Amino acid sequence: MVVPWKQILAFTPQILDLSRELLERARGTKPAAKLVRATDPEDVAARVTALEENERRQAELVERM
Q: What is the reported pTM?
């Protein structure tokens, strides 16, 4: 299997940036998002909003990768 070094080298800055970001998250240097816990079923909207925000952040990370 041939390794596409030219393409890998072109993406090196992005790979390094994402690697640093993931390392910072793993070390816990950035504040984690607060979990929203609903005490009653009426708070479902707040929980859905928190889930949507989490999905948006994950999509941004995947897109940058």
A: 0.39
The answer to whether the beta carbons of residues 49 and 6 sit under 8 Å apart is: no
The greatest distance separating any two alpha carbons of the chain, rounded to the nearest whole angstrom, comes to: 56
Question: What stretches of the chain show up as alpha helix (H) in DSSP?
Answer: 5-10, 12-27, 44-64
| The amino acid at 46 | A
Q: For 53-63, what is the mean pLDDT?
A: 89
Beta carbons of 36 and 51 less than 8 angstroms apart: no
From 50, 54, 27, select the one nearest 37 (Cα to Cα).
50
Is residue 47 a contact partner of residue 36, using CB atoms and an 8 Å limit? Answer: yes
